[in-house]
Amino acid sequence: MISFEYRTPKNLKEVHASLKEFGTDAKLIAGGTALIIMMKQRLVQPSCLVSLRSVRGLNGIEIKDGGLRIGGLATHRAVESSPLVRRRIPLLAETYHHVGTVRVRNMATVGGGLAHADPNQDPPPTLIALGATVKATSANGSRVIPLDTFFTDYYETVLNPDEIITELFVPKLPGNSGAAYLKFLPRTADDYATVSAAAVLTLDKNKKTIADARIALGSVGTTPIRATAAEAVLRGQPLKAEAFVEAGEKAKEAVDPVSDFRGSAGYKKEMAAVFVRRALERALANIRQQSKAKAAPKTTKRAAKTRKRRKR
Which strands sit side by side in the sheet containing 67-71, from one edge to the other? Predict the structure, then answer.
């Protein structure tokens, strides 16, 4: 039996006071979906658990600067089912839908999942590709951290022991952009991926050249990986299948997977290239779907006018 003190602060000031009192012997707990398992396995043995469940104002989802501000205590299920998220950044809702089971998503929090820093999780690649940032708060103030610099190693981040994630910010996608997240599942639907890939593709105003690209991968290293070299080979290139293949090969060079029951390291490397290419193809397909959707009302109006003329 592990003996520990349990604190239930009502605000951030009380949270910070408990963290200051216990230092590295304190652990924050929100949903507890990862921490409780680690405590049962004796991987962590805190002398104090500081619950965030009673802290108000950290579970909202709202528009901010054209993007979305998501509170650190918002659950995965809240992001997945939010009409606002589905309307503004549908890929975000889709990605959180892939996390575990409904029971897990109803408990796990956005901030807790990121702070846990498991490189096999679904949200980080999508969030990195979308250019997301987190706000970390301590008694000394707050700072904004880009997600692509947030993770440092297995279960490790740049967070200081006295900091907590209070906000996730996902910016609005640029015009002529499409986004996609894909994961390869050899086992059950709620399992970790053998490899996952997220891509955001932005075209120029004529939609014939790639203006920008952001690519990230999961389950192929000690942290989620942003494939900057793969992004670089795409920028300024015309829309050709060969460009996506080349980007996939570049992404393969960035990963460093380990062999496990989901696949060998060599197999995961090959799948990284395949899934980056597929994610880019899906992102491009999404851009074209959006273009068709915008053009559809105009076509309908023209058809209606034509029918009226014929009746006359």
Answer: 61-64, 67-71, 164-170, 133-138, 141-146
**Radius of gyration, CA atoms only, the chain:** 22
Assigned architecture for domain 177-294: 2-Layer Sandwich (3.30)
Longest dimension (CA), the chain: 86
Give 76-132 pLDDT, tens digit per residue: 999 999 999 999 999 999 999 999 899 999 999 999 999 999 999 999 999 999 999
| pLDDT given at position 149 | 98
Question: Over the range 139-174, which residues count as b (16 or more CB within 10 Å of their CB) and which as e?
Answer: eeeeeebebbebbeeebebebeebbbbbbbbbebbe
Tell me the C-alpha distance between 195 and 217, whole Å.
7
Please state the domain extents for the chain. Answer: 5-170, 177-294
Q: pTM for the complete prediction?
A: 0.90
Give the whole-angstrom CA distance, residue 251 versus residue 204: 23
Sign of CA dihedral 300, 306, 310, 312: positive
Return the CATH fold of 5-170: 3.30.465
